[in-house]
TrEMBL record:
GO terms for cellular component: endoplasmic reticulum; membrane. It comes from the Eukaryota. Keywords: Membrane, Transmembrane, Transmembrane helix. InterPro entries: PigQ/GPI1. It holds the Pfam family Gpi1. The keyword Transmembrane applies. One of its GO terms (biological process) is GPI anchor biosynthetic process. This is Phosphatidylinositol glycan anchor biosynthesis, class Q. The chain crosses the membrane at residues 270-289, 335-354, 361-388, 394-416, 437-461, 467-490.
Length: 573
């Protein structure tokens, strides 16, 4: 049977002493975590391991002979009686060689691994970088067919190293009666800035939580929960983004410590996303308020609105004539054309009425970018919706008229075939009609059929204009959702510390010297970029109804309205 010993690279040159670690249950494997140096008192070693609070044991002895320590190996061999174990490892390394020698003492029998023995006494050393394994998070392999034995063993190895963190923090280095060698033997990794941020995070989180509590109580007041206010706030992208960021800040500033890995990564991704969002917003504010760009934008906005209104008037004049040589119903064409022209004149009057206040409105709207780039993009979407409200009205009028015509024709067509729609059973049933009903139905069907080209043309034109606006708003919402949901912290770990997100491991031969066991090096395979995005993407709210392309085309053909509004109850992972 093969004995696998996971040995940390930081202990390759450690002084002689005891091996501290853990036997993996159900596997003929041992994980070495640290080396306790000689001299030591066995009672202090037992007490030290007990105080660590980690399920550890003394695996065996480690011998690194030096001058004046000729009898050290025999002394360490006799320690197996003080630390009784079912299996006792005796590892030794000669100066100038990379490979180790291994003796396994089991049930008072000594088995020697010489590298050429049978299968029952074969030993394999697997070297690993203790720091990377302890800080990494192992993810399941998505593609491929992994070895079931290796797949069940790796999480136990990673979990053993990760759970041994209290053992390293308990080490007081020069002040401790027990000297150890591990990945933090030269001192703990730390930063003054990080420690100061940890100390300052508690009062900042408490203050932010108090402010968010006041804001939440204000938003839940009766005045703001009146039905018109609630309806308007649910349709405005800015209000939805504000509630979304409030929820994010409540998650980040929660006093509950993030113990689980997924909870920690969610908090970190939200915090980094919020920080990048605010930074981009401040850059946008600094760019907007330079060189009087607000005034230039205000002076350009009103002429642009006049130009759009003029183009719409020319389009309506073209539709009121003979568009593309088509023969239209002149009476209905004139009524619809004048109706839409009247709306355009109202819109132009509204724009010119608001023109003296445009610059002031833009000046205050630009300050909202201090809350983040997503707020500025959400405001841009809402302003676009307000400036194109007349196009939306044209689309609704044309869609309703076209929808009534189509459904009227389909109902009258069933009348010709002696059918009717059963509302209660939701099906088409047979029905007998008298002569008057058939005459009126034929008359209405003829009228609607000849009016259909005119209504369909107006509906087609205004639907295309509406789709242009919806596509622009869709691009803006995609940008907002990308900033809200993209796992920036996880992607940063994948790029700069790829070992933190592990998908598996790979082995390479480290040493194959005669007379010594096989030595392998365990390297961490980082998680794929696509898997990082899929695993750690922050859940967002959908921007549009989740309709398929077929359902969308069916709605457009039947004249049903398409509302590109955010649905807060629909959450997408």
């Amino acid at each position: 049977m093969v004995l696998k010993i996971f040995f940390p690279q930081c202990c390759n040159k450690a002084d002689s002493g005891l091996l501290v670690g853990r036997w993996i249950p159900g596997q003929n494997s041992a994980v070495v975590l640290a080396v306790i140096h000689y001299p030591f008192i066995p009672g202090q070693v037992k007490q030290y391991i007990h105080q660590s609070g980690v399920d550890l044991t003394v695996l065996g002895s480690w011998s690194m002979p030096k001058e004046g320590q000729e009898g050290m190996e025999s002394f360490l061999r006799d320690l197996s009686t003080i630390f009784p174990q079912g299996q006792w490892l005796q590892l030794s390394r000669e100066m100038g060689k990379i490979g180790f020698r291994c003796h396994l003492v089991q049930q008072e029998k000594e088995l020697k691994e010489d590298g050429g023995g049978g299968e029952k006494d074969k030993v394999i050393f697997i070297h690993y970088e203790q720091r990377k394994v302890m800080l990494s998070q192992l993810h399941p392999i998505e593609n491929g067919v992994p070895d079931p034995q290796t797949e069940s063993q790796l999480p136990q190895v990673f979990g053993t190293v990760c759970q041994s963190e209290p053992l390293f923090f308990l080490d007081k280095y020069d002040d401790s009666p027990v000297k150890l060698t591990h990945w933090q033997s030269e001192g703990r990794e730390g930063s003054i800035i990080v420690e100061l941020m940890k100390q300052a995070s508690t009062p900042v989180c408490l203050l932010t939580t108090w402010i968010l509590t006041l804001w939440t109580s204000l938003c839940s007041s009766r005045i703001l929960n009146v039905r018109p206010m609630r309806f308007i706030s649910s349709k405005l992208s800015t209000c939805v983004q504000l509630s979304y960021r409030t929820e994010h800040l409540q998650t980040v500033c929660s006093p509950t410590r993030a113990t689980a890995h997924n909870h920690f990564m969610r908090k970190a991704n939200i915090f980094v996303s919020f920080f990048v969002d605010v930074s981009l917003g401040l850059l946008l504010v600094s760019w907007i308020y330079r060189e009087n760009r607000i005034g230039k934008l205000a002076n350009t906005l009103v002429p642009a609105a006049d130009h759009v209104a003029k183009e719409l008037e020319e389009l309506l004049q073209w539709l009121m004539g003979a568009p593309a040589g088509l023969k239209m119903n002149r009476a209905l064409d004139q009524v619809l054309g004048r109706f839409f022209l009247y709306h355009i004149h109202l819109w132009i009057s509204y724009i010119h009425l608001m023109s003296p206040f445009v610059e002031m409105i833009l000046w205050y709207v630009g300050l909202s970018a201090c809350l983040g780039l997503t707020f500025a993009l959400s405001l841009l979407s809402d302003i676009t919706a307000l400036l194109t409200f007349h196009i939306y009205c044209f689309y609704v009028y044309g869609a309703r008229l076209y929808c009534m015509t189509v459904y009227g024709l389909s109902s009258l067509w069933r009348l010709f075939r002696g059918k009717k729609w059963n509302v209660l059973r939701q099906r088409v049933d047979s029905c007998s009609y008298d002569l008057d009903q058939l005459f009126i139905g034929t008359l209405l069907f003829t009228i609607l059929l000849f009016l259909l080209p005119t209504t369909a043309l107006y509906y087609l034109v205004f639907t295309l204009l509406r789709l242009v606006v919806v596509m622009f708003q869709g691009v803006v919402h995609l940008g907002v959702d990308f900033i809200n949901s993209f796992p920036l912290f996880a992607m940063g770990l994948r790029l700069f510390r790829s070992y933190r997100l592990a998908e598996g491991v790979k082995f390479r031969v480290l040493c194959e010297e005669p007379g010594t066991p096989l030595h392998l090096m365990m390297d961490i395979n980082p998680l794929k970029v696509s898997s990082v995005v899929q695993t750690y993407r922050t859940p967002t709210y959908s921007c549009y109804p989740k309709d398929s392309w077929l359902a969308l085309c069916k709605k457009l053909f039947l004249g049903e309205l398409i509302y590109p509004w955010k649905h807060k109850t629909t959450k997408i992972d």
